[in-house]
Amino acid sequence: MYLIWSIINGIIFLCFLYLIVGFIAKGKRIFKPQFKYISIFIMIIGITQIISASNEDKPNNRIIITEGYNNNNSKVKRILLEDNLAFDINLSLKYSIDENEFIPISSNSSLTGFISGYVWDFKTIETKNNSKTKQLEFTANGILQWELFGIDVYAQYKTFNGIIE
């Protein structure tokens, strides 16, 4: 499903480029009578998105968990939260080990792969030391926003649980 959504976004973008180049080269003749209103709508939405793209705030997917901690002995663990055909959701957790206990310092999450039509907004992360197994359990939450030509269409809330050994 994710790959189909990305392909739809790519097709709409290519239609927009075709219409812009055709309008510059041929003028109003590029608009076929049967698709005239759809073509004009795609052009208006595309131009609006290009103009507003510079004003758009991208989500900061970095969360500071422990402030002011001396992190001389810190490590970064990379975890694959979700593996799809089109893209992956990754999590990086910076932590320090102090007296056999994990002390999380900061976390970052991102999308990698073919991410056309998606924006990942990493919201929270909760960590808990398991003293019995000497592991760090985490719960990460975020919102995967489905966009069609830059317009939010659907927001999918995602929760991931895991263990860092």
Characterise the protein shown here:
- The protein has 165 residues and is an alpha+beta fold.
- It has 2 domains: 2-55, no CATH class; 62-164, no CATH class.
- Helix content is 25%, strand content 48%.
- The protein has helices spanning 2-26, 36-52, and strands at residues 62-64, 74-83, 87-98, 101-113, 118-130, 135-148, 151-164.
- The protein has a 4-stranded antiparallel β-sheet with strand order 1-4-3-2, with no helix packed on it. A 3-stranded antiparallel β-sheet has the order 5-6-7, covered by helices on one side.
- It is elongated, with a radius of gyration of 22 Å.
- The model has no long low-confidence stretch (mean pLDDT 81).
Low-confidence runs (pLDDT<50, min 5 residues)?
A: none
Largest sheet: 4 strands, antiparallel
Beta-strand segment tally: 7
Percent of sequence in beta strands: over 45%
Rough outline: elongated
Helical fraction equals 25-40%
Radius of gyration: 22 Å
Number of helices: 2
Q: How many domain units?
A: 2
Helix and strand composition category: alpha+beta
Please tell me the overall pLDDT. 81
User: How do the SSEs run, as a string of H and E?
Assistant: HHEEEEEEE
Q: Order of strands across the widest beta sheet?
A: 1-4-3-2
Distance between the termini: 33 Å
List the helices and strands and how they pair.
Layout: H1 2-26, H2 36-52, E1 62-64, E2 74-83, E3 87-98, E4 101-113, E5 118-130, E6 135-148, E7 151-164
Antiparallel strand pairs: 1-4, 2-3, 3-4, 5-6, 6-7
Q: Outline of this structure?
A:
The chain has 165 residues and is α+β, with helices and mostly antiparallel strands.
